[in-house]
UniProtKB/TrEMBL annotation:
Pfam families: Bac_luciferase. It comes from Halopseudomonas oceani. One of its GO terms (molecular function) is oxidoreductase activity, acting on paired donors, with incorporation or reduction of molecular oxygen. Residues 19-304 form the Luciferase-like domain. PANTHER family: LUCIFERASE-LIKE MONOOXYGENASE (PTHR30137). It comes from the Bacteria. To bacterial alkanal monooxygenase alpha and beta chains. One of its GO terms (cellular component) is cytosol. InterPro entries: Bact_Lucif_Oxidored (IPR050766), CmoO-like (IPR019949), Luciferase-like_dom (IPR011251), Luciferase-like_sf (IPR036661). This is Luciferase-like monooxygenase.
Length: 332
């Protein structure tokens, strides 16, 4: 896009709005991926979450195939696959299949958290440790993507020998250090973990060792963004996400609520503090104010790329927000 000085990407949790269905959420993701491709966004990633009535992207690789089949150029990826929930061979085969069908367009972002509650994590992992063996699983997965050698007994078909970019995702410092040591790109979940942002990025850069794929660190920062024609409308749109997170901390997670002009009547002061602290990594406003916020964020973090989560109840307003965000980017 003319004037775009850094890549801008999309993170979609495939939120299910109140009164809608998972089918609606997946069709919305398809329409949004097409829309963002036309706007010039670099990537469209979907995330793995389980046992959540408000999120429709649990079968992440399946959703990715649906989105890739509906688009032409935008990179489709996972933000992320929670590797300890799966056998590395399964992920190698799934993403090898995606890359074979949509060559040069597939990203594999990996995390080590379960992406759910403890009971569901136990159902997924069947008593396995809670991510402590992530480095070993990552090494096994990378070996499965390597060129297949004569006599090799364990092979990913398709998968072996395919060039599928691997990203490590994190909301703390563990994956930041691991990504740096392996010379991999790193994506930080600033959209819900702003407290660890600067320590994670600093550790990633300090521990980075050049690899065949990357000679220098490459950090992508996750943020929330709600952009509208005026600031009042933008804050109104953001209230759906604030309500959803409020319900989460109260132990009553559900579908994405419609926005409200009166958040103060819904939360207690300590709840407001917790929600606003957790969601502090958000850009909210009209294009001019968001452009200023974005410039300050990039200056403070040195991020190479932003990946934007915009859980907005109304899909036309959400599409408009992504369009205005791209305009704000071009004003930097």
């Amino acid at each position: 896009m003319p004037g775009l000085t850094f890549p801008l990407s999309v993170l979609d949790l495939c939120s299910i709005s109140e009164g809608a269905t998972a089918t609606d959420a997946l069709h919305n993701a398809q329409a949004m991926a097409r829309h963002c491709e036309a706007l010039g966004y670099q990537r469209y990633w979907v995330a793995e979450h389980h046992n959540m009535t408000g999120i429709a992207s649990a079968a992440t690789s399946v959703v990715m195939g649906y989105l890739a089949s509906s688009t032409q150029r935008i990179r489709i990826g996972s933000g992320g696959i929670m590797l300890p929930n799966h056998a590395p061979l399964q992920i190698a085969e799934q993403f090898g299949t995606l890359e074979s069908l949509y060559p040069g367009r597939i990203d594999l972002g990996l995390g080590r958290a379960p992406g759910t509650d403890p009971a569901t994590a136990n159902a997924l992992r069947r008593g396995r440790t809670d991510g402590e063996d992530f480095p070993q699983m990552l090494d096994e997965l990378r070996q499965l993507f390597a060129p297949i050698e004569p006599g090799q007994r364990l092979r990913a078909v398709p998968g072996g020998g395919l060039n599928i970019p691997i990203w490590l995702l994190g909301s703390s410092t563990f994956s930041a250090q691991l990504a740096g040591r392996l010379g991999l790109p790193f994506a930080f979940a600033g959209q819900f973990s702003p407290d660890y942002l600067f320590s994670a990025l600093r550790l990633y850069r300090e521990s980075f060792r050049p690899s065949d794929e990357y000679s220098e660190p490459y950090a992508m920062l996750g943020i929330n963004a709600y952009v509208a024609d005026d600031r009042e409308q933008a804050h109104y749109l953001a209230s759906s996400h604030q309500q959803a997170f409020l319900n989460l901390i109260r132990g009553t997670p559900g579908q994405l609520p419609p926005p409200t002009h009166d958040m103060e009547s819904l939360w207690q002061p300590h709840e407001r503090h917790q929600v606003m602290s957790t969601l502090a990594g958000s850009l909210i406003g009209d294009p001019a104010s968001v452009s200023t916020q974005m410039a300050e964020l990039l200056e403070r973090t040195g991020a190479n790329e932003l990946i934007v989560n915009s859980p907005i109840f109304d899909q036309s307003a959400r599409q408009h927000s992504y369009g205005l965000l791209m305009q704000a980017t071009q004003q930097l």
